[in-house]
């Protein structure tokens, strides 16, 4: 069933992209988005210019100065509110260099939240994602983007009868994206994401069994995340202010905002990519 | 050490046996009588069972399990007990196929005979001594080597309807042979012990002096009559060794010059052809 839904999503994505590309071959609006100055922000080295705003389903961003953008992901807030504890998160992204054909950026942020495991136990998590990215404008229509994201995850749980302890895991994600502007409205994107390194999960805890007491210092095997990847064709539609990013790919799901990777077999190897946002 | 058990290097004769026979007899008597190795293995087995209860069918350790769905939604559960969550699943902090160390602290049962009363619930009393062990986990299985110390651990040894006071104070290392899956019966394994400590065991109330032991031996818990002692006779540790074994009423030794039936009581060893040497 999931496979059929995935296939249908892929077809819809391709159809929408081709149709819109055809319509956009002759631009009918000088205000269409894919311009020299207005570029994709996600998975690239570009950031919002000063006083520019992006309000999206997945992310809210504001350009503090031309070289510095502040963002927050919406899903941790929304899901956190639903599950009784919001997850504050913030990301600063700076486009340090943007001249001629090349742009370079660095970004860093944090995500903090709590998962209620039971009436008595809460697991807290704290993520620090740090990334670097580069974008190269090969010609006015085609750009390439490459980057690396290192995420350090630190968590702890307490309050339950069985477990008190801490969890630590680090992982590195590399990505590359080809952006091909089919028109001023439609851009085709082809994104490849790969996780070349995942540290072992270190769990320090205790198992309260009465007598004997059992203290644990464990490493969990997360080798199935090692070399997780996703290949995601997609499109970004850009109108005057509204934008849609839509893609369906294969293999692992890289969860935006939570900086997590869901192994491919969990979601039948469907790797979606979706956002709706306005920029002004 | 393990190699010494497998490949005895000493050539044993009457002179050698004459020098070590009394030590062998005394060590065997103290080891079999005090049964302190059973106390150590009982703690390991208890940890094994606790880990098994909290491990799901994929070998993932689930900590602080809670039922998701089903009749016991939200209730506490153990991942290895399907009955805890009818029509639901047991979820919690999941550690996939864990590796690492487990520090175990056990307060010994002491000498209070009420511990054998099924209705008696004793509060563990640190005055009864402790056993502290390090158990390793190897992809969810218990690692083959367990080590630790017993700190004046007191316990009772039931013998023919009577309970005798015993204690052990010292270090212990246990080799289980291979990594042990959580559902494997440890009592059926041939387990090698290396101990260095003091056994307090006085079943007849004659000799109250503790016995100093620094010994390697092998036992299988399910085989209560079996014991194999490593006898080290070289100038350097493990330079020259042989094994002396007890199996029910039978005794014998395995040495570089062969395997013989022996009797510490009759002070002789023999093979199928007859007596070989005596001391």
Give an overview in words.
- The complex is a heterodimer of chains A (280) and B (279).
- By secondary structure, chain A is mostly beta strands.
- Chain A has helices at 2-24, 74-82; strands at residues 53-56, 59-65, 68-73, 89-99, 102-116, 122-137, 142-158, 165-181, 186-198, 201-207, 213-220, 229-238, 242-251, 253-255, 260-262, 270-279.
- Chain A has one domain: Porin, CATH 2.40.160.
- Helix content of chain A is 11%, strand content 56%.
- Chain B has a 12-stranded antiparallel β-sheet.
- In chain B, strand 8 and strand 9 form a beta hairpin.
- Chain B is elongated and about 75 Å long.
- The two termini of chain B are 27 Å apart.
- Classes of the chains: A mainly beta (280), B alpha+beta (279).
- The interface between A and B is medium-sized, with 30 and 32 residues.
Which terms summarize this structure?
heterodimer, A: mainly beta, Porin, 12-stranded antiparallel β-barrel, two-stranded antiparallel ribbon, elongated, disordered N terminus, B: 279 residues, alpha+beta
Count of distinct strands of chain B:
14
Q: From N to C, what is the helix and strand string of chain A?
A: HEEEHEEEEEEEEEEEEE
Give the name of the CATH architecture of chain A: Beta Barrel
CA distance, first residue to last residue of chain A: 40 Å
Mean pLDDT of chain A: 81
| Structural domains of chain A: how many | 1
Read across the widest sheet of chain B, the strand sequence of neighbours is: 3-4-5-6-7-8-9-10-11-12-13-14
The spatial strand order of the largest sheet of chain A comes to: 1-2-3-4-5-6-7-8-9-12-13-16
Biggest chain contact: A-B, 30 and 32 residues
Weakly predicted, low-confidence segments of chain A: 1-32
Largest sheet of chain B: 12 strands, antiparallel
Shape of chain B: elongated
Question: Which structural class fits the helix and strand makeup of chain B?
Answer: alpha+beta
Model regions low in confidence, pLDDT < 50 over at least 5 residues of chain B: none
Average pLDDT of chain B? 88
Query: What kind of sheet is the major sheet of chain A?
Result: 12 strands, antiparallel, barrel
If you compute it from the alpha carbons, what radius of gyration of chain A comes out, rounded to the nearest whole angstrom? 21 Å
Oligomer: heterodimer
User: How much strand of chain B?
Assistant: over 45%
Shape of chain A: elongated
Separate helix tally of chain A: 2
């Amino acid at each position: 069933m999931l496979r059929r839904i995935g296939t249908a999503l892929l077809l819809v994505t391709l159809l929408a992209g081709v149709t819109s590309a055809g319509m956009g071959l002759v631009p009918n609006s000088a205000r269409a988005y894919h311009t020299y100055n207005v570029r994709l922000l996600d998975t690239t080295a570009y950031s919002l210019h000063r006083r520019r705003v992006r309000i999206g389903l997945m992310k809210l961003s504001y350009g503090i100065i031309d070289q510095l953008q502040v963002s927050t992901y919406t899903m941790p807030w929304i899901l956190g509110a639903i599950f009784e504890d919001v997850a504050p998160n913030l990301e600063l992204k700076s486009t340090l260099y943007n001249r001629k054909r090349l742009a370079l950026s660095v970004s860093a942020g944090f995500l903090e939240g709590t998962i209620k495991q039971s009436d008595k136990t809460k697991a807290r998590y704290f993520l620090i994602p740090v990334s670097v990215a580069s974008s190269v404008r090969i010609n006015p229509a085609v750009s390439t983007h490459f980057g690396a994201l290192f995420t350090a995850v630190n968590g702890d749980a307490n309050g339950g009868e069985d477990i008190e302890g801490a969890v630590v895991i680090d992982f590195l994600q590399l990505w590359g994206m080809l952006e091909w502007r089919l028109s001023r409205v439609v851009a085709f994107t082809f994104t490849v994401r790969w996780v070349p390194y995942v540290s072992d999960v270190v769990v320090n805890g205790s198992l309260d069994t009465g007598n004997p007491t059992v203290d644990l210092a464990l490493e969990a095997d997360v080798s199935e995340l090692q070399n997780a990847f996703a290949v995601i064709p997609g499109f970004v539609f850009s109108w005057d202010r509204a934008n849609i990013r839509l893609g369906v790919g294969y293999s692992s799901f890289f969860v935006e905002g939570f900086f997590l990777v869901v192994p491919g077999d969990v979601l039948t190897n469907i790797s979606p990519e979706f956002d709706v946002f306005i920029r002004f | 050490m393990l190699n010494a058990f497998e490949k005895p290097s000493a050539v044993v004769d009457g002179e050698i046996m004459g020098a070590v026979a009394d030590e062998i007899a005394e060590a065997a008597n103290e080891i079999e009588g005090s049964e302190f190795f059973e106390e150590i293995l009982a703690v390991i087995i208890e940890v094994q069972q606790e880990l098994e209860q909290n491990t799901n069918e994929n070998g993932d350790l689930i900590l602080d399990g809670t039922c998701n769905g089903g009749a016991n939604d939200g209730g506490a559960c153990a991942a290895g007990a399907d009955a805890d969550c009818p029509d639901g699943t047991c979820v919690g902090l999941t550690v996939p196929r864990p590796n690492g160390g487990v520090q175990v602290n056990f307060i010994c049962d002491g000498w209070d005979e009420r511990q054998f009363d099924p209705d008696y619930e004793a509060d563990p009393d640190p005055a009864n001594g402790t056993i502290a062990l390090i158990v390793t986990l190897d992809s969810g299985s218990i690692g083959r080597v367990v080590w630790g110390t017993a700190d004046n651990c007191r316990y009772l040894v039931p013998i023919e309807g009577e309970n005798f006071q015993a204690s052990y104070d010292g270090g212990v290392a246990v080799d289980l042979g291979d990594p042990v899956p959580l559902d494997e019966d440890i009592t059926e394994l041939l387990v090698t012990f290396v101990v260095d400590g003091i056994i307090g065991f006085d079943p007849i109330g004659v000799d109250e002096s503790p016995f100093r032991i620094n010994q390697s031996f092998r036992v299988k818990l399910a085989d209560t009559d079996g014991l194999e002692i490593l006898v080290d006779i070289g100038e350097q540790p493990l330079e020259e060794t042989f094994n002396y074994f007890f199996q029910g009423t039978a005794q014998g030794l395995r040495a570089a010059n062969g395997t013989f039936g022996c009797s510490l009581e009759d002070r002789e060893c023999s093979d199928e052809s007859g007596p070989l040497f005596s001391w």
